[in-house]
Amino acid sequence: MTNKELKDIIILGIESSCDDTSASVVRDGYVLSNVMATQDVHKKYGGVVPELASRAHQQNIVPVVDDAIKTAGISIESISGVAFTRGPGLLGSLLVGTSFAKGLSLARNIPLIEVNHLQAHILAHFIYEKGKETELPKFPFLCMLVSGGHTQLVVMKDYMEMEIIGQTIDDAAGEAFDKCAKIIGLPYPGGPLIDKLAADGDPKAFRFSKPRVANFDYSFSGLKTSFLYFLRDELKTNPEFIQENKNNLAASLQKTIIDILMQKLILASEKTGIKEIGIAGGVSANSGLRKALISEADRYGWRVHIPDIKLTTDNAAMIAINGYYKFMRGEFADQSVAPDARWKF
Length: 345
Prior knowledge:
The protein has helices at residues 50-72, 91-108, 117-123, 173-183, 191-198, 221-237, 241-244, 246-272, 287-300, 316-329, and strands at 10-15, 21-27, 30-37, 81-87, 112-116, 128-129, 141-146, 151-158, 161-167, 276-280, 303-305. A hairpin with a 2-residue loop joins strand 8 (151-158) and strand 9 (161-167). It has two domains: 10-134 and 312-329, ATPase, nucleotide binding domain (Nucleotidyltransferase, domain 5); 141-309, Nucleotidyltransferase, domain 5, CATH 3.30.420.40. Helix content is 41%, strand content 19%. Helix 8 (246-272) runs parallel beside helix 9. The strands form two sheets. It has a six-stranded mixed sheet, with helices on both faces. By secondary structure, it is an alpha/beta fold. The radius of gyration is 21 Å and the shape is globular.
């Protein structure tokens, strides 16, 4: 393709990896729309119920895609390609998005582009927004991907060339937030509530276990156990301990998780020599983590990149931007493609 032919590329992105149905339109790297339908039904179960999630996706996907196209101010005929989340995620949820994308690709005779959900989270840093000055990361770029299901340190050498240099050996940071939140009686999802409570708490009030893991890998299962046993012992002498100390518990837990995350990020930066540093994924919305990243930037001479809050959660804009770069490279899927719940990049 020539540079002229690569202009006015319009990608429709579809994200359905978990419990949010999202569609987005990106033109030449600029996001024109990013529409999402959330599923509140899971709150009363304390977590995402896969069967309920897939059913909700089936109900939401057509109106969400329609809304995204209308909001973008384009016609369906102008779409250059359709990108979709192939994995990782919940198989039933992925199947809905994959099937819709395959159908649209076939009906409109446009390229079909498979996207890795985790890779897309990182590429959210490369989205342009109209009327907003965006400073893109320079390569090589070290990104800490932190979500409910994954915690990884990734080196980006180019838009599509990424290397995982560290990851959790058990639980993810977001999982630690949510499960510890559940222990103290907070509803799902507990991570954002911990962040809110921590604002009025003392982060040094209590101390919890920190793991000793080699290299750049993470571990959070020990922290959850430490938190649980600490509360068990305190409740023996004071049944109201949690209620009386909820803010301090949240602040201390949050500080511990952030300390674990930042320790490995600092080590990775020192060992690789990379000063372009960013965070991505749902937990990157955490205010404490954002403050910690900015604080360490001056000390270590980092150039930090923090995504807009709306681009930290599972959203289709990150799928569309990934699809945009794959489109330019001519990396297309065929109709035999199937969702992969454990797809690794």
